[in-house]
Amino acid sequence: MNSSTSTESIAHTSGCAAQAELVERIARFTPGDGVHLTPVRQLMLIRISSPTECTPTVYEPRLALVAQGSKVATLAGETYRYDPLNYLVVSVTLPMIGQVIEATPEKPYLSLRLDIDPDEIAELLIDAGQPHADNGVDLGLYAARVNAPLMDAVLRLMRLLDTPQDLPVLAPMALREIFYRVLGGDLGHRLRALAVNDSRSSRIAKAVAILRQSYLQPLSIDDLAQSVHMSTSSLHHQFKAVTAMSPLQFQKQLRLHEARRLMMANGLEAIAAAHRVGYESPSQFSREYKRLFGAPPRSEIGLAKATFEN
């Protein structure tokens, strides 16, 4: 065996051991299916024991890293797979479809999620001295390969869950290293661009945040463009480059996602949910709901009732 082959073998063995440790640690802190909070505010752990249906949801900015199994996220017809080899970064709020595609009771889907705070990323960029040229905008979603330095940093954070007394001091350091590794990894420039103050990408991120906070209000594209210091045409073009949809489509999807949540979680009837999110026409609401989710609102209400009764 030559030295190159030996080095590759050692690296492979080390990578397998790291993944096995991550599986064990997430499994230990997720006794049942669902999303589990941890003492680290930004960190959540997920266990799912069987493949899921396509689930519409609004993804807030996050890093998702899978230890076992795999999942796909779909945005505007494009599908992004994340598994033990590939992590997912969502750098702006995006309405998407998620689906766990590999999971069994014996080998459940296990993953961790870290919320992304743009202000913390911007501070990290300053401390790291990583300049960014404002050369354009990219989609606010990407999958990239997991490398050894990133996995090491993630494991250091997970090990801290066994020593809660160390979390206040060491967890912020581990989190900074994780995001430092992401910023330096494949496609990390996309996350950097959205955190650099007054870049075109960061202006779109601000527009997204405004829409997220006020999506129930009537939308004025001119006012939105003015609030982020862009022309209307530039906002429309670059907003679509980051989110894969226009500002109006983005607002509409946020409204429909909220209506679905109100029906599924709160038991509202379709007409009440439609009015709650700003629709005046029930028929228009039903058409647009079915176009986005693939089923009319009444089907969702029936599903919610069946789930509750069972």
Automatic annotation (TrEMBL):
Keywords: Transcription, Transcription regulation. InterPro entries: Homeodomain-like_sf (IPR009057), HTH_AraC (IPR018060), Tscrpt_reg_HTH_AraC_N (IPR009594). The keyword Transcription regulation applies. It holds the Pfam family AraC_N. Residues 205-303 form the HTH araC/xylS-type domain. Coiled coil: none annotated. PANTHER family: ARAC-FAMILY TRANSCRIPTIONAL REGULATOR (PTHR43436), TRANSCRIPTIONAL REGULATORY PROTEIN (PTHR43436:SF1). This is AraC-like DNA-binding protein. It comes from Pseudoxanthomonas sacheonensis.
